[in-house]
Amino acid sequence: MSTINDVVLIYFEENPVVFARIEDISPDHKKDWYHVQLLMLQLPLQTVTWILRDIYIEGESFTMGGKKMRIEKVVTPERPDTSDDNDEDIVVSKPEPVKRPNKKSGKGAKVVSLKDRMKR
């Protein structure tokens, strides 16, 4: 079952539409129903509270306004296997230092004030 701080993908009519993070789950006065507070991970950020049965939080489909909805917990993909036999393929090198222009020579980039440009 999804729980607080889990990231979920919300499906609308079997199409994924938005990611959300579960902020809070609190029991409703009806048995097996919960108030689920979701932070919608879109712009602008928005918090909504849905009243859902426990099976809906687990991923079962439900309807909202006559439209089919579903919540699916997002599982982080496994990292590739980094066993010892693959270590010989890994090459680590130090990055070369960034060459900066000599400040005393007067050569280099010119600083342009955006504030002054706005006044024109």
Instruction: Work out the radius of gyration.
Output: 26 Å
- Indicate the proportion of strand residues: 35-45%
Low-pLDDT runs of 5+ residues are none
- N-to-C CA distance: 59 Å
In one word, what is the shape? Answer: elongated
**Helix content range of the residues, please?**
under 10%
Please work out how many helical segments DSSP would assign.
Answer: 2
Q: How many β-strand stretches?
A: 6
The main β sheet shows up as: 6 strands, antiparallel
User: What's the overall average pLDDT, rounded?
Assistant: 84
Order of helices and strands: EEEEHEEH
What strand line-up does the widest sheet have?
A: 4-3-2-1-6-5
Q: Which class of secondary structure composition applies to the elements? A: mainly beta
Please, could you describe this protein's structure?
There is one protein chain. The protein has 120 residues and is mainly β. 8% of the residues lie in helices and 38% in strands. It is built from two helices and six strands. Strands 4-3-2-1-6-5 form a six-stranded antiparallel sheet. The longest helix is centred in the last third of the chain and has 5 residues, at 114-118. It is elongated, with a radius of gyration of 26 Å.
